[in-house]
Write a structure and sequence with these properties.
The chain has 440 residues and is an alpha+beta fold. The chain is 32% helix and 28% strand.
Length: 440
């Protein structure tokens, strides 16, 4: 993408409505634009990052054995009346009447719809276990939407739903999803801590929320230092092996973790003092086991091995995909702008031509740009160097390739690493190799 032709509306001033870091930087870097309270348009740069986050989520769901579907945003009210939640959910649900006076709603979650879909096809125990997921827009009519995409009314969410024959199978599904979540967040360059949580309006009796550690997080968290050293993305746990899942779950739950509301000082004292950590965190995911709460209410049964009807056990598993973008920025920024993890950065490299029109600088920039198809932004604007540096730091390209007449005459690129500030002067091929290492 050439900046001279790009739609990338960066702002020098912080909009008055932006109260937290991620909201300020997402508006200033041209990732989003607010269209009404709690509702945002995703601009080209923000949409690229959102897609990269979605793809990592998708890959880890597939790896865990879940199958992707796509359910509609608008749901018939009858499904929610069947489950008993229509009147209980509250004013966060946006209720709609269509032109034929049919009651509809903009889905805040999909337990009812996925149960209705599954019961139309599942007839036998051979149809279990199954886990279905989708990545779709949701709407919850927050009374005070604020903090940008961290608490919007419309948001992109990955929600998955498991169906199992019995409690033991449901627990295996639950643990497989927990492993998928830990791998997902690790791949995004984030430290995630799973914490036992209340089930809320979804129901059930087993629940964990996933907290991303960030200096500007919304709540205080207490956790064991073991969470900082675990590389979940590389651990060879097999999601289909119950013994492996047991080992993983014992490892995770054996480490202390709690929000300030659920902090148990007696348990905290059992953690070695040099392993105690206290920080701030942001919730980005939640998983639930709720047994037959929805399958029973909605008449989902399958024939067991002996022909006896069985009501499947269920769980649901959510990740706030658009919320994750805000959390990533809260966890990675400085006074100059965003510091993206390599895996989710909209572009890997910003190419800064310090003197457009200089033959050598133009030629070297074009070579580098052609060698990084789809992963480089070429700042070819006739702007002063200071403005280009400021925009590059604000947008947060993991690499900045700075090319001026003197370096270009020698075939040299000045490469700056955004996260550390490290600068290297390298020949073009070595600069390319450095950048490509982080694209793997």
């Amino acid at each position: 993408m050439r900046l001279s032709r790009a739609f990338l509306p960066t702002l020098k001033e912080t909009p008055a409505e932006a109260q937290i870091v991620s909201h300020r930087l997402m508006l200033r870097a041209g990732l989003i634009r607010q269209t009404s309270a709690g509702i945002y348009a995703w601009l080209p740069l923000g949409l690229r990052a959102l897609r990269k986050v979605s793809e990592i989520v998708r890959q880890e769901q597939d790896r865990a054995g879940a199958q992707e579907i796509l359910m509609p945003t608008i749901q018939p009210a009858e499904l929610w009346k069947e489950s008993g939640r229509y009147d209980d959910y509250g004013k966060e649900m946006l209720r709609i009447t269509d032109r034929h006076d049919r009651e509809m709603l903009y889905g805040p979650t999909n337990e009812e719809m996925v149960t209705d879909i599954f019961k139309s096809y599942a007839k036998s125990y051979r149809d279990l276990p199954r886990n279905l997921y989708h990545i779709q827009w949701k709407f919850r009519d927050e009374i005070r939407p604020r903090f940008g995409v961290m608490r919007g009314r419309e948001f992109l969410m990955k929600d998955a739903y498991s169906f199992d024959m019995d409690y033991e199978g449901a627990v295996r599904s639950y643990r497989a999803m927990m492993l998928a979540y830990m791998r997902t967040f690790q791949r995004m360059g984030l430290r995630a801590v799973p914490m036992r949580a209340d089930t809320g309006p979804i129901g059930g009796n087993l629940s964990h929320e996933f907290i991303i550690l960030a200096p500007t997080g919304e709540s205080t968290v207490f956790y064991d230092a073991g969470f900082e050293s675990m590389d979940w993305s590389q651990m060879e746990f097999d999601s289909s092996d119950p013994a492996d899942l047991n080992k993983f779950y014992d490892l995770v739950t054996g480490l202390y973790a709690a929000t300030d509301e659920m902090h148990d000082t007696a348990a905290w004292e059992k953690v070695p003092e040099n392993s105690r950590r206290e920080g701030r965190g942001i919730e980005v995911g939640h998983i639930f086991y709720f047994g037959t709460k929805y399958s029973k209410a909605m008449g989902l049964t399958v024939a067991g091995p002996d022909g006896t009807p069985v009501v499947p056990e269920m769980g649901s598993y959510g990740i706030g995909v658009s919320r994750l973008l805000g959390a990533i920025i809260e966890a990675g920024h400085d006074e100059n702008g965003i510091i993206w993890p390599d895996a989710v950065a909209p572009f890997a490299c910003g190419i800064l031509n310090l003197k457009p029109g200089d033959a050598a600088a133009d030629a070297l920039c074009e070579q580098l740009y052609a060698a990084l198809p789809g992963e480089a932004v070429y700042d070819d604007r006739p702007e002063r160097a200071g403005a280009k540096f400021a925009d590059a730091d604000l947008i947060g390209y993991p690499w900045q390739a700075i090319i001026g007449p003197r370096g270009a005459a020698k075939g040299v690129v000045e490469l700056k690493r955004r996260a550390t500030g490290e600068r290297l002067e390298l020949p073009l091929d070595e600069a390319l190799a450095k950048i490509r290492e982080t694209l793997a």
